[in-house]
Design brief:
Layout lengths: L12 E7 L6 E3 L4 E9 L6 E9 L8 H4 L7 E7 L5 E2 L4 E12 L3 E9 L1 H5 L8 E2 L3 H10 L10 E3 L8 E2 L5 H9 L9 H4 L6 E6 L2 E6 H5 L6 E6 L17 E2 L2 E4 L5 H7 L3 E8 L4 E8 L33 E5 L10 H7 L7 H14 L3 E8 L9 E5 L17 E13 L2 E10 L11
Parallel strand pairs: 10-13, 14-15, 14-21, 17-19
Antiparallel strand pairs: 1-2, 1-5, 3-4, 3-22, 4-8, 5-6, 5-7, 7-8, 9-11, 12-13, 16-20, 17-18, 20-23, 21-22, 22-23
Length: 447
């Protein structure tokens, strides 16, 4: 395991250069930067950044950067940020100006904020899908992401295979919308088709500094496929920049907070623990009702914590397909857009294009269970971390036992759902929003 960050959040290094859309002119705004923020999230299709700087005259043609370049939108921005351990972000990654916001202004200078986004963010708004797609979901996502006909991204891609196919027509939807729509229908391939279709489902698609990722929820929570990057501890006691940090941890948290105060009505509304699907075939009048509860599949899920939340048995509804809190209705998708010649298409005419009752219920529950336990930590800048990485977190327990100092309920393995690297003249920090699908401390910070 690589070493964690130093505990002193002293200022790091940040350089930003903005190029004119007209060519020829560029401006280095590094000297005027007030703050720089870089964002990644498993819920976001692209990375983003925000830079606030003081814009004075005499920079470009004796004018301000805003007027001299000028900055009007879509300008190419080269940036380079470095933490206190020499780890950097920005080399070979360019962002583009999405919006320009004046923060304040006087007669001598103005403070400007630039919202920066990836190239694919802009291209997505100029592409519509108007063709037929067939085959594996993971293959179609690769095509939408890398083909010059669509997003044409040349970034690294890490696409996990899906076991199931899905045929569809683009219907003039945007590529990133379609990718996220397909993600909910994906089933991981490693479980095998006979087992996986009724056991687990659901993928995430997001961008990090390393490129694009398409990963199943199970693989994100599996410590063998997603080894932990850091072991973080929050002690509530000051020390001299981490010198007194326990040896089994790599990083000292500067702040720690729990965000997993459950609202059970909201959980029921989104179907986190029980769902029902009603399926109807208008050609044959076939009608099927299928319901699932999370307890039925607890043994087939990969958990980063010890146990799923236990529901009060007083609220269980007895009887077949009676215990559910969310219902979805679908028309059976049979014989849709079959592949091959006429003979092959006839063979597939009675096959289901998508197994709603076997897959959709699983993805609904799985997505909403993933946010069961949530914590936020702030550490000194650590630019090796990425959204989707696994970390181990411990905080003080409330037991009176001196030999049991950590919290056994909230401690353990978490997934980074969102991160923000923040740089200013006062210091360099990384804030992590962490999630998992269960409670209870499992494993150890050093294992």
């Amino acid at each position: 395991m690589s070493q964690g960050t130093s505990q002193k959040a002293v200022p790091g290094s940040v350089r930003v250069n903005v190029s004119s859309n007209g060519g020829g002119n560029s401006a280095d705004i590094s000297g005027g930067i007030v703050e720089f923020k870089y964002f990644e999230s498993i819920l976001s299709d692209t990375v983003s950044a925000s830079v606030t700087f003081v814009d004075t005259g005499g920079v470009v043609k004796d004018e301000t950067v805003l007027d001299g370049l000028p900055i009007t939108g879509t300008e190419k921005v080269a940036f380079f940020i470095e933490d206190n351990n020499g780890k950097s972000i920005g080399q070979n990654l360019f962002l583009f100006v999405n919006s320009v916001t004046p923060v304040s202004e006087d007669g001598r200078a103005q403070i400007i904020n630039l919202d920066l986004r990836s190239k694919e963010y802009f291209i997505n708004n100029k592409v519509r899908l108007s063709k037929k797609f067939t085959g594996k979901i993971s293959d179609n996502i690769t095509t939408l992401l890398t083909s010059e006909e669509f997003l044409g991204s040349d970034k690294n891609v890490d696409i996990e295979d899906t076991v199931n196919n899905y045929n569809f027509i683009g219907n003039l939807k945007k590529p990133l919308y379609t990718i996220n729509w397909l993600s909910k229908k994906g089933v991981p391939i490693e479980a095998g088709e006979d087992v996986a279709l009724e056991k687990t489902a659901g993928f995430f698609f997001w961008e990090t500094y390393d490129g694009y990722k398409f990963k199943s929820i199970d693989s994100l929570l599996d410590k063998n496929k997603n080894p932990k990057k850091r072991s973080i501890v929050f002690t509530e006691t000051p020390d001299e920049f981490g010198k007194d940090m326990p040896r089994q941890y790599t990083t000292k948290a500067l702040t720690f907070s729990k965000n997993n105060l459950s609202n059970m009505k909201q959980k029921y509304n989104v179907g986190a623990y029980s769902t029902k699907t009603v399926l109807f075939n208008p050609f044959t009048c076939y009608y099927e009702v299928k319901s699932y509860t999370a307890e039925e599949f607890d043994s087939s899920y990969v958990h980063s914590g010890q146990n799923q939340p236990i529901q009060n048995p007083e609220f269980r509804r007895a009887g077949e397909s009676k215990d559910f809190s969310r219902t979805t209705y679908f028309i059976e998708d049979t014989g849709t857009l079959p592949q091959g010649d006429t003979e092959e298409q006839l063979k597939q005419s009675k096959e289901q294009n998508f197994e709603y009752t076997k897959i959709l219920n699983q993805s609904i529950m799985r997505y909403n269970q993933l946010f069961t336990s949530q914590v936020s930590v702030t550490i000194s800048g650590d630019f090796e971390l990425r959204a989707g990485d696994m970390v181990y977190v411990d905080s003080p327990g409330h037991s009176e036992k001196s030999d049991d100092p950590v919290n056994k309920q909230s401690g353990g393995l978490y997934i980074i759902s969102e991160l923000c690297h923040y740089l200013s003249p006062e210091g360099t920090y990384t804030k992590l929003n962490l999630i998992r699908d269960s409670f209870g401390r499992k494993g150890s910070p050093s294992a």
